[in-house]
C-alpha cells in the first residue's frame, strides 16, 4: 500500500489542469484576467458615480464672518554696513520738482496778410503785412517789431513772432 503524502495532495488537484491543452489554458487565464480587471474597473467607476442619497445642504443663515484685526505697520531701517562691499548705504536725498512758471501772456500782435508783389526781373517777392494797424512792405528774413517773415506765397505767409511760428492766410 502506498501512502499519499500531503505534498502530493495539491498536485492531484492541479494535475487535470496540467494535462489540459495549451489553448484551453490560455482561454482560462484570459477569462480570469478579464474578470479581475472587470472587478477593479467596477470599483473605480463606482467611486466616481454620484449618489443622491447623501445630499448635503448649506445653511447660509448661520454664517458669521470672522472678525479681522488690523496689523500694525512697521518699516525696517537698513542703515547697517553692506557685508559684501563694506560701505555704508548712501542716504537718499529728496529732490523737489520745480514747477514751471506759466508763460506770461504777452498781448497778441494783430497781424494781417493783404497781398504780394513779385518783381519779374529779379524774382524778388515783396509782401504787404499789416502789423497792429500799420501796413509794412516786407521781404523774406526781414524783421519789424519782433515779427520776422520766414517764407510766403500768394495764399499765406509764415512768420516768427517772439520765438513762435505763426501762419497767416491772405485777407481778401
Per-chain topology:
Blueprint: H1 8-18, H2 22-48, E1 111-118, E2 125-131, E3 134-138, E4 143-144, E5 147-152, E6 156-161, E7 164-169
Antiparallel strand pairs: 1-2, 2-3, 4-5, 5-6, 6-7
What does this structure look like?
This protein is α+β, with helices and mostly antiparallel strands and 172 residues long. It has two helices and seven strands, in the order ααβββββββ. The chain has helices spanning 8-18, 22-48, and strands at 111-118, 125-131, 134-138, 143-144, 147-152, 156-161, 164-169. Strands 4-5-6-7 form a four-stranded antiparallel beta sheet, with no helix packed on it. A hairpin with a 2-residue loop joins strand 2 and strand 3 (134-138). The protein is elongated. The model has no long low-confidence stretch (mean pLDDT 80).
Q: How big is the Rg?
A: 53 Å
Name the strands of the widest sheet in spatial order.
4-5-6-7
Q: How many strand elements?
A: 7
Sequence stretches where pLDDT stays below 50 over 5 or more residues: none
How can the largest sheet be summarized? 4 strands, antiparallel
> Number of helical segments?
2
Mean pLDDT: 80
User: What would the principal axes of the Cα set say about the shape?
Assistant: elongated
Class by alpha and beta content: alpha+beta
Name the beta content range: 15-25%
**H/E order of the elements?**
HHEEEEEEE
Helix content estimate: 10-25%
End-to-end C-alpha gap? 148 Å
Amino acid at each position: 500500500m502506498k501512502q499519499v503524502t500531503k505534498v502530493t495532495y495539491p498536485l492531484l488537484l492541479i494535475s487535470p489542469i496540467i494535462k489540459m491543452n495549451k489553448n484551453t489554458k490560455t482561454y482560462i487565464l484570459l477569462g480570469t484576467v478579464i474578470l479581475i480587471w472587470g472587478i477593479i474597473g467596477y470599483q473605480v467607476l463606482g467611486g466616481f458615480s454620484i449618489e443622491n442619497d447623501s445630499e448635503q445642504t448649506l445653511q447660509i443663515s448661520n454664517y458669521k464672518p470672522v472678525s479681522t484685526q488690523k496689523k500694525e505697520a512697521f518699516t525696517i531701517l537698513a542703515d547697517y554696513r553692506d557685508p559684501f562691499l563694506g560701505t555704508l548705504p548712501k542716504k537718499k536725498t529728496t529732490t523737489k520738482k520745480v514747477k514751471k512758471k506759466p508763460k506770461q501772456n504777452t498781448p497778441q500782435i494783430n497781424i494781417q496778410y493783404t497781398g504780394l508783389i513779385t518783381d519779374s526781373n529779379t524774382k524778388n517777392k515783396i509782401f504787404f503785412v499789416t502789423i497792429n494797424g500799420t501796413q509794412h512792405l516786407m521781404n523774406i528774413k526781414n524783421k519789424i517789431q519782433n515779427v520776422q517773415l520766414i517764407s510766403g506765397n500768394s495764399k499765406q505767409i509764415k512768420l516768427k513772432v517772439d520765438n513762435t511760428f505763426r501762419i497767416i492766410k491772405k485777407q481778401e
